[in-house]
Amino acid sequence: MLENKDKLRPNLTMLTDFYEITMANGYFTNGLGNKTAYFDMFFRDLPDGGGFAIMAGVQQIVEYLSNLSFTPQDIDYLRGCGIFNEGFLQYLADFHFSCDVWSVPEGMPIFPGEPIITVRGPVIQAQFVETMVLLTINHQSLIATKANRIVRAAKGRPVMEFGSRRAQGPDSAILGARAAYIGGCCGTACTICGEKYGIPALGTMAHSWVQLFDTELDAFRAYARQYPKDCLLLIDTYNVLKSGLPNAIQVFREEIVPRGFRPAGIRIDSGDITYLSRRARRILDEAGFQDAKICASNSLDEYIIRDMLLQGACVDSFGVGERLITSASHPVFGGVYKLSGVEDDNGNVIPKIKISENVAKITTPGFKDLYRLYDRSTSKAFADVVTLHDETIDDSRPYEIFDPDFVWKRKTVTNFRAVRIREQLFRGGQCIAKRRTLAELQSYCHRQVETLWDEVKRFENPHHYYVDLSPKLWNLKHQMISKYSN
Q1: What does the alpha-carbon distance between residue 58 and residue 40 come to, in Å, rounded to a whole number?
Q2: Do residues 153 and 458 lie in contact, with contact meaning Cβ atoms separated by under 8 Å?
Q3: What single string gives the DSSP state of each residue in 308-374?
Q4: Which of 40, 137, 228, 238 lies 20 to 30 Å (CA to CA) from residue 342?
């Protein structure tokens, strides 16, 4: 799972909600610390009202769980709180992660209500990792989902992630760029991501470069002489059509072509980019630079990009910053982490459920697995089914799926392929995660998104993709609802 060029992050063991430590202390003193518990991460709503989300952040979970340890300074801090049992503090000092972990792989489309991560192990440990699991998957899945929407809006045109300076801190910039690359961006302006993850680092000049020189023409000439092979000029510092574009064309002719190169193109960062790009394209073509590309930036998102292209914008690539790196239109990915079962002394799973008057907050009990059903004739995914862990969907026989909320909506499917889509990351605390490069994850994401029907990929009013429960799991859930509601 780990990228080859990745380096270990700082020890984040203490990045946890305080109640996770106070509960762990209580489990320990009540003799429950080694009781085996099952926790599921799932989410309830899709960002931006979309049809699906993209799983991301699994590598960082692997790193975190592989390096859990409490330093003497951590133990001293907790001892200083004056509320923790000394035996519990010794347990933390000798801490060794021993859980089993399953996860949907990075790049896979995911849907509300399904267990995208399950942690099984001693309740102290399985409860303790909640905060890092949530913050990591919530953040990166949010950004990967937004990036994928923007990339799809661009209709095959490259999208560069330009958001570092608007991210909420260094981790958001770095890991946000990572997630954006998985979601489909071709590169990033964040240099450290090129060094750390091998993501293509991209960029040309800022307006300050142009302003620093006596004239715009001088600025373009200096840049062209420095970078003749990849000369892309920012032409909107003063006036796109009256000075920026004419000066760029002059420099292309005088500095780039005589050196045996062709110009990379121009970038427009302000104004009515649709109008300006159409005019610029015509002028560039008339000047003999039909191969010069036009790049657009400036507070773009999937809706603006879609509308620009519908209106005939002549843009070959996009740089997208703040609205991508912060997912500004929907800045929260509401993943939650809930207890779903415990084991008795004989190793039998005792399912647990949370009941709520808010139906959406009722959890699905038990140790579960997740299948995706694909139509064999089209290879398109048409439903996910959450099952109990010991169930198998036999795709050689007809199978009935039904809406778990409106159970009269039923359909018997045939000629389908049932695939377990979760992978095991840890077994008994030992990492067994598959290694994949970021490029492999990006390619995997693209292939998996292509298995969805176009109706699911609509930006507005997408088709509802069904996440069903197996009959056995549905019956268990409703038996428990009846038991605890009376």
Answers
A1: 15
A2: no
A3: HHHTT---SEEEE-HHHHT-TTS----EEEEEEEEE-TTS-EEE-----SSGGGPPPPSSEEEEEEE
A4: 137
Neighbours of 233 (CB within 10 A): 28
Domain boundaries, the chain: 18-137+333-485, 144-325
Judge contact between 39 and 351, C-beta under 8 A. Answer: no
* Helix ranges restricted to H, 268-321: 273-286, 302-310
Q: Is the pLDDT at 2 greater than 70, yes or no?
A: no
- Averaged confidence pLDDT in the chain: 96
Strand bridging mode 399-402 / 410-413: antiparallel
Average pLDDT, stretch 317-344?
97
Q: Is 58 exposed, middle or buried (0-12, 13-18, 19+ CB in 10 A)?
A: buried
Confidence of residue 236 (pLDDT cuts 50, 70, 90): very high
**For tokens 């890092």, what's the residue?**
132
- Our measurement of the distance from residue 98's CA atom to the centroid of its chain's CA atoms, rounded to an integer in Å, reads 27
Confidence at 9, pLDDT banded by 50, 70, 90: low
Q: C-alpha dihedral over 289, 290, 291, 297, to 10 degrees?
A: 90
Q: State the CATH architecture for 18-137+333-485.
A: Alpha-Beta Barrel (3.20)
Residue 322: which residues within 8 A CB-CB, separation 6 or more? Answer: 163, 166, 299, 328
Q: Do residues 200 and 194 lie in contact, with contact meaning Cβ atoms separated by under 8 Å?
A: yes
